[in-house]
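Course assignment 3, question 2. Fill in each field.
Student: A.L.
Task: Predict the tertiary structure for the chain below.
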Amino acid sequence: MKLVTLLSWLTAFYRFSSASELSFLVEPTDVTAVRDRPLMLDCQVQGEEPITITWRKNGAPVPSTPRVRVLENGTLLITSFQKRREGSDADVGEYDCAAQNRYGLLVSRKAKVHLACK
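Answer field:
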């Protein structure tokens, strides 16, 4: 009986202690986007709430706009993938997501986003 009690206590302790650590369930992956079409980059994290998820493109923060936003589940949604007229790619680049809670910060792998040629 004491062994069962000890195992129950250790299991509860493990669940409590591991709940604070952040870990990725899904990280963003390389993708080819289509101009003027929606693009979603996934980032799902587990850990103790509250967890804040932010995105960077080429190392700079991705600002939230009516066209680009982070969904409640951490996914980055670009409602209409864009390329600037002067030849500079507006949305093409390397994206990563960062998850933060009171225990620390976790940064995902970089996902390369390319534009499909028509």
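Instructor remarks: The longest helix spans residues 2-20. Residues 10-18 have pLDDT under 50 and may be disordered.
Grade: pending
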